[in-house]
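Narrative summary of target 7.
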Amino acid sequence: MRASALLRGVVDLLLLIVFVAIAITGIGLYLAPSGRIADSIGWTFLGMDKDTLTNVHTYLGFVMIGLVAVHLAVGFRSMWVMLKSAFKSSKVKVIAGLIIPLLLLAGGYQAFSAYVGSEEGETTDVHYEESTNSTVYITGTMMKYYTVQELADEFGISTDALIEKLKEKGIEATPDEKLAEIEYKYDLDREEFKAMLEEIITELRGESG
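Modeled conformation, tokenized:
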């Protein structure tokens, strides 16, 4: 009996620790920028980047599965006795107690599916189809990794002129700032931001020509 009580206490404590850690990493992943922007801008949460958060969250999830299995194995008989007793006294409460967690699980699954779907949708923009502008085409790689200076150099235009044009559209930028950082900072749609840059570059190249 003492060993069983000690084991239950240790398992419950470990479950609490793992639960808190999973909750923290889960919050970090929820706050992380979508797609690969987190990697582009060097985003971190409590010193961990998005990949590290994902790995830790996944590993702790498997640890929790094991702990829950032990917890159920140790307390299964007690749980069964309590459920039978509760079912005899109030079937409605027992049914409600079973339905509510199932509804919560279903709601959580729907939210997770929506989140994963948005992630996948935003990571499919690495390669674009034909650009709407035939003279200037900005690739997905440029949008993720280029700075304003590198983009200007790529198309042979003045960095200051590019920054000035962005400022006219309400976007403050510096030469060493990455396009992905600007996109994240101003919550811009990548396709719209890409089209805006192509339009600006075309205009500046026309002026210089």
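The CA atoms of residues 138 and 197 lie 8 Å apart.
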